[in-house]
Structures are given as C-alpha cells and as structure tokens.
Write a structure and sequence with these properties.
Layout: E1 2-8, H1 10-13, H2 21-30, E2 35-42, H3 46-57, E3 62-66, H4 77-85, E4 89-91, H5 93-105, E5 119-121, E6 125-127, E7 136-141, E8 144-149, H6 153-172, E9 177-186, H7 190-197, E10 208-214, E11 217-226, H8 229-247, E12 251-254, H9 259-270, E13 274-278, H10 284-290, E14 299-304, H11 308-315, H12 319-325, H13 330-344, E15 348-354, E16 369-376, E17 379-386, H14 391-413
Parallel strand pairs: 1-2, 1-3, 3-8, 13-14, 13-15
Antiparallel strand pairs: 4-5, 6-7, 7-8, 9-11, 9-12, 10-11, 15-16, 16-17
Helix pairs in contact: 2-6, 3-4, 9-14
Length: 417
Amino acid sequence: MKAEILSIGDELVHGATVDTNAAEIARALLRCDIEVERVSVVSDRFADITGAIRDAMSRCDLLMITGGLGPTQDDITRDGIAAALDLPLEMDAPTLERIEARFASLGRPMPESNRVQALVPRGGEAIDNDRGTAPGLWVETGSQCIVAMPGVPREMRHLLEDRVLPRLDRRQGSACCYHERLVHTFGHGESFIAEQVGDLFQRDGEVRVSITVRTGVTTLAVRSQGTKAVHVREAVDGLAELIVERLGKWVFGRDGASLEATVVGALKASGRTVATAESCTGGLLAELLTSIPGSSAAFEAGFITYANEAKTRQLGVPADLIAAHGAVSEPVAAAMAEGARRIAQADFGLGITGIAGPDGGTPEKPVGLIYVACADEEGVRVRECRFSGDRALNRQLAARTALDLLRRRLARESPSS
C-alpha cells in the first residue's frame, strides 16, 4: 500500500510550529506494514489544500491528513477533502450531538461555529474524538482511503492509536509483522557509533538500521518486517543485542527509555539521592530529573546559582577560589557539586558551570566551554566539555552530560555492571 502524509497549517509552512505529527504517523504506519512514500506541508488556503489532496490521491492508496479540523474560518480541511473528491458535505447528527454533549459537560453552551465540525463528506464517517471537539474523518473512494485527524498532537495521537491504526490493520488484512527495537547511546555522534557497529548492519539484508542524533543522544533503530512474526522478532532482537554488546557502556537504554528516566530509575533502585547546582543551565538539569514521575524519591534539591555571590552564599564555594580560577573552571564546578551534596544531604551532587553563549567567551574560555561535576562520598569527578552548538543546544548538552556522568557512576555500583 502506497501512503502519503499531508500536514495542513500556516504555522507549519511558516516554521512557527514543528510538524512532529508526520514523523509519529509514519512510524506508526510501519506497524501496519504501510510505508510512507511522501510527506507534504501546505498552508490553510483552500486552493492549496484541494490541490495537494488531488495530487496525493493520483499517486497513493492511503492519504493521512492532520490539521484544519477546528471550528474557525481557516479550518477548511473537510471542505478541501469534499472538493477534491467532488462530494457534498453533510451534517452528521450523532457527531453534532457528541460535540454538544462535550460542551455541556464543561458547563458551556456550544458556539454556533462548532457546528461545522460535524460536517462529513458524503459517504464518509466521523471518527469520534473524546479528547477534543474536532472529530476525525474517514473517507473511502474505491480502493483509496483518506484519513483526517486533528493537528493537536495529543488528540492526533489518541485517534491514531485507538481508532485509526486498528481499522487500517483490519483493512489491510495482512499477515505481515513489523518489529522495531531502539538502542540509545550518549556521548558520541553518528560517525563514531557507525564505526563501532557498522559492520553489523550488513549481517542480514532483511533487517534495516538507521541512526538519528538529538541533543547528544544517538539512537539506533533496528527494524524489519515479514510474514513470519517469530523470524522477524528473532532477527531484530538478535541484531539489537549484538549492537548493545558491542557499544557497552555507551548504551543507556532501549526502546522508550530516556536518559533522565534511566538515571532516576537507577537512583531509586539503589536507594540513593541527588542534588543539583546549576549556573549556565539555569535549572534545566533539575527540570529533566523532576519531569520523571516518582523522582521525588531520588531528587533532594536544586540550586540555581547564576551569580558568583550566589555560588558562595548558597553553596559555600569560596570566593577566593572563584577569584583565582574564574567561575567557569574545574575547581568551581567541583565545589558546586560538593556544596549541593553537602547542603542537601544527598548521596550525589551534580554541578554545572560554563559559557552557553552566544557571547561571554574569551580566547582562553570560549563559548561552549562547560564544566560538569559529579560528587559523592568517594570524591568528585569533573568533565570538561567544549560544545559548538547555539545557546539552547549547549545548555541541553551540558544538562545531559551531567546525567550521563551520574549514570556511569551508578552503573559502576551495579552488581551487573
């Protein structure tokens, strides 16, 4: 089955919003043995939407659309679908009742403008959306199918997983099995990882491996599909295990694991706690840790000490140490980590100080120079980092480097390491 994805919205075309929906849909369709051949983005203009739908339907069997299903004047995806297929729009009474009931449950009258969300191209069906007022649309014409979903990621994901994918699976009627494993590493880029395990990629032509990099995390996706589920799973799992064995300490997790979740899980498993002291990251490290449910069992406190005086006042970093080495230095990072650990009475202390940019650098201490420290009862370890990203990326890399430093320290204590 040939599939395409069409994302609709001025905010996507102008770059104000990143289209994460298309990537999620493409990955999900693979589970139904449907491979996406093209992804397009168009504005909210009627002519653009109609033209894009007609073009896509001249090539594909399945068109997945997101966006433009709201109640405002620029939400005209349903109009575009109807025009492209030369079908009239008709009011779907059950859908209108569900929208009215949703407003009633919120204690608000339904605005008249929301009535348009119950319009469906003749012969099509509304896809019930209990996460919002915008239903999706399912329209079949001959052997082809159009599925439209809201652009709000939370609503789109709900309809995709609970309503659309099961129906597509039944429609396919295929015995094909798709299986994927993800291996996450930190600390080295794509070229280094490829050098370490690239020869494994050629072991089995049925299994494909792709590498992506985001904020310091390099992920290998191992995937395959075939008619024999057991064979597909064994091939993918086997290659994933070989990759993990080869990369060893660089691997921090698999599949849905994040670096922060891995660290919090390891802390909880060992009954240990951590405190953070941050300068250039401004609390980002603490935010990553506390974004994980249950982190209160492992996270004691976070200190944001941007000014030199704050480092001395809150963490006890000696003023003469800062004067001698500068705030951006290995000794100060170590003192910050030790101070956070001592004051919070935590098992570990993490300290970050550096120059995130875009200004503030010197020839001796350029932008991107960041020191990350991890302190425990055995002492303190400091890592000097020289990042070359923009301010936002440098801060993300610094916070995750601190997490990885702690992960490695915890792994050394694990009986299985």
